[in-house]
Amino acid sequence: MDKLPKIGLPIIFAVVFIIFLLFKTAVTIDAGKAGVMFKRFGGGVDTSTTYGEGFHIVAPWNDMIEYKIRQQSISDKMSVLSVNGLEVDVDGTVWFQPKADMLGKLHQEKGRDYISTILMPAISAAARSVVGRYTPEQLYSSKRDVIQNEILEEVRREVKDQYIQVNRVLVQDVTLPSKIKDAIERKLKEEQEFLEYEFKLQKARKEAERQRIDAEGKAAANKILSASLTDKILQEKGIEATLELSQSQNSKVVLIGSGKSGMPIILGNQ
């Protein structure tokens, strides 16, 4: 009876130790994540292997560091200067993800806080560089898509060798000081009204030109017709018409040679 507790105590310790080892060595990497192995007695970070989703056995003296590798986004509102020195607030979002096959290098050289130490400064520098090329009017109106693409290219250049993949940049809003915004809106309204006036004026000019050409065409046609109608032709046409009328069944009186031009005059009733 006295020996049983002495034998049972080591067994209990052994079971607890085995359970501890199981919890320590068994690692499950969740969906959308990947792992980097830190080998305490094997040279530090294993940069050659990225561990994917699922169950992994890790030696108790090693550590598995997990990273999100699915696409992520960060949003920020930055105050930057336009080409003429005016302060502009740019509200944007960037979609990114770490390069899974380079995760060991990312952990070794940049660390787990790479978003704040590498990516955010790159975005800020790119936004300042791109926005600084444009006037407030361009930023406010038609340059939004161009600015987005240029910021994307700038960020990609900034993080080219940083093991980060930048997928897209979205500029959601560009906020100007209220006085500048009102002045731009007034200018745009005046330009729109001017374009409408120019359109109406151009339309009126085209209509006047059309009427002039139409009138000139009619005048030219009348001139040609008048030139072709000689006295002889008129007499021949008159004779033809007289013959047709004389053959009708209606009562009439024909006076030969009574007209000023020698044309017959027909008198009669129905």
TrEMBL record:
Membrane-crossing ranges are 7-27
Topology in membrane = Single-pass membrane protein
Q: Which residues form the Band domain?
A: 25-188
Extract the CDD domains matched here: SPFH_prohibitin (cd03401)
Per UniProt, subcellular location reads as:
Membrane
Does the record's keyword annotation contain Transmembrane? yes
Query: Which InterPro entries does the record match to this protein?
Result: Band_7, Band_7/SPFH_dom_sf, Prohibitin
Is Membrane there in the keyword field? yes
| Keywords attached to this entry | Membrane, Transmembrane, Transmembrane helix
The record's principal subcellular location, in a coarse class, is: membrane
The name of this protein is Prohibitin family protein
Organism of derivation:
Pseudofulvibacter geojedonensis
